[in-house]
Write a structure and sequence with these properties.
seven-stranded parallel beta sheet; 46% helix; alpha/beta
């Protein structure tokens, strides 16, 4: 039996984790979400009655809610502790998704607001999450903390392919990778493996209509993707991504060099088979369309 605490299980990869892990009745899954009632309804509708699934309210931007989630989790798991703490929830900004950083400065107030929200959610929120849940992790048998990050936080990818977009989001994920390394530095000696991983290019369905300007930014990014991975075949379904990610976090260990690491879903930053020898795997909200464009599909970017 393994005990999991996972943030952001209401949709996308997070719900995929919840669904896959709870299929084994021996596992126990605690999912943290902002909208508890809606997620409980979704679980009941799509998964049926699974006594090993517990949905709790937990918002990365609300410290009190995370503290209460820890108390509620402790009541559920008792002295067993938790084996896997998965920081999956994040704020994916649309403001900087398609524009270079110089253009963001034309809207200074929005830049400030989005940057604050990104760092409060993706960075500070995970610091609080890891700090608050660490006592339960230390009680667990497996003792693993995984942050779901992004290839956008990789300096080599940005520098080698002049990737201009998603500056604020990228910075928040790069900061998260540093935070993960700092937690690893503190807790590795206690047997806790802390590392961050990009989930890869996954069809998560987070894509709305684009303006002409956003379309231009997207097309520029598509060109960077094509240069980076000429044989990229497109995103994989959530189910496939979840299996690959779980396989990695189950086999990863301090002894094999994962402590504090930032890796792809294949466990490295070199020779990733999915991207023709390149390692940094892109994720996020527009990758499904990027994949179609990369394959030469005729697509109306204004509609989905």
């Amino acid at each position: 039996m393994s005990v999991y605490v996972i943030t952001g299980v209401s949709s996308g990869i997070g719900f995929g984790f919840l669904k896959s892990i709870s299929e084994d009745p021996q596992n126990l899954v605690v999912g943290l979400v902002r909208n508890k009632a809606a997620t409980e309804q979704k679980v009941a509708t799509e998964l049926g009655k699974r006594s090993n699934v517990h949905i709790l309210h937990g918002d990365l931007t609300n410290y009190a809610s995370l503290k209460q989630a820890v108390a509620d989790t402790a009541k559920i798991v008792g002295e067993r502790g938790i084996d896997y703490l998965v920081g999956n929830a994040a704020f994916p900004s649309q403001f900087d998704a398609y524009s270079p950083i110089g253009e963001l400065g034309e809207e200074p107030e929005e830049l400030d607001n989005v940057a604050d929200k990104l760092f409060k959610t993706n960075v500070t929120g995970n610091i609080h999450l890891f700090n608050l849940f660490m006592p339960l992790v230390l009680k667990g048998e497996t003792k693993k903390v995984i942050a779901i990050t992004s290839g956008h936080g990789d300096l080599d990818f940005i520098n080698n392919f002049d990737v201009e977009n998603s500056a604020l989001y990228s910075a928040s994920k790069a900061a998260l990778n540093i935070i993960v390394a700092k937690f690893s530095a503190q807790y590795k000696k206690y047997g806790v493996l802390v590392f961050s991983m990009s989930p890869g290019v996954v069809e998560v369905g987070h894509f709305d209509d684009l303006t002409p300007k956003q379309t231009e930014g997207l097309m520029k990014f598509v060109g960077r993707v094509q240069a980076y991975a000429p044989h990229f075949k497109g995103p994989i379904p959530v189910e496939g991504a979840v299996q690959t990610i779980r396989s990695l976090w189950e086999r990863a260990s301090i002894e094999t060099g994962y402590a504090g690491a930032f890796v792809s879903q294949f466990g490295n930053r070199q020779n990733s088979p999915a991207l023709n020898g390149h390692s940094v795997v892109l994720d996020w909200c527009w990758v499904d369309k990027v994949a179609l464009l990369s394959q030469g599909s005729d697509l109306n970017l204004g509609n989905r």
